[in-house]
Design a protein that fits this description.
Length: 75
């Protein structure tokens, strides 16, 4: 087993990576029942008492999903 160091992204970095301006645009993608819910959106990780983050590798994979969806929709 290899120990791979993961990079955590905080909400500001996730917003930037996804091209959205509000935190709610990120969190709503994770909430079942919300019209913006996306089951492919990575879940956040609790990194402190009042702090959450996302794994950079999971956000990068999610970006690829969004790109694929966009290109498929354009066909």
């Amino acid at each position: 087993m290899t120990n791979q160091v993961e990079t955590f992204l905080r909400i500001g970095e996730v917003k930037k990576a996804l091209g959205v301006t509000s935190s709610e645009a990120v969190y709503s993608r994770m909430r079942e029942g919300n019209p913006r819910y996306d089951p492919d959106m990575p879940k956040s990780v609790k990194v402190g008492k009042r702090a959450t983050a996302w794994l950079a590798s999971e956000i990068a994979a999610y970006q690829q999903i969004l790109i694929s969806r966009s290109r498929e929709a354009g066909k």
